[in-house]
């Protein structure tokens, strides 16, 4: 018989950390609001939610790693907004944040969901932070719920 393992989407008893960068805070505040909204709408307990703020997206990997190593959270959502400017800085920050977070999730075994916008324009970022294209923070929090449940299911099976 085939065994199919899938994570359900619920925040009940989920210990969630959200690590969010302050750079481009007019966008990241919206992502944070979306992630918190998802957590509460799916039955999350305020006492199980931790929010940690970093200066920019470049700092997300180290801070997320530090949070993950406390082993106090079932999943972590990393939120940020990297918006292209006139210099190659965008490429370095975007590349390092995704590379670093991918390393942290594999090294710690804690599900880390990448909710960092990488956009060419401010308009694109606005679209993804609660207007035309939904809210990436909300989506990232839902993915974190599924990943936490999925890993738990795999360990139980
Ligand atoms: N940080 C961001 O989160 N988004 C950006 O768009 C950005 N740009 O373009 O400069 C940015 N830079 C700051 C960076 O994350 C670090 O905080 C900084 O370089 C200090 O290490």
Structure characterization notes:
Helices cover 47% and strands 22% of the residues. It is an alpha/beta fold and 157 residues long. The chain has a single domain (16-151), classed as Rossmann fold (3-Layer(aba) Sandwich), CATH 3.40.50.960. The strands form 2 sheets. The chain has a 4-stranded parallel sheet with strand order 2-1-3-4, sandwiched between helices. A two-stranded antiparallel ribbon has the order 5-6. Helix 1 crosses helix 5 (136-156). The mean pLDDT is 97. Residues 21, 23-24, 55-59, 80-83, 85, 89-90, 93 line the site of 5-nitro-6-ribityl-amino-2,4(1H,3H)-pyrimidinedione (INI).
Précis, in short:
With 157 residues, this protein is α/β, with parallel strands linked by helices. The chain has helices spanning 25-41, 60-69, 89-108, 122-127, 136-156, and strands at 16-21, 49-54, 75-83, 112-119, 129-131, 134-135.
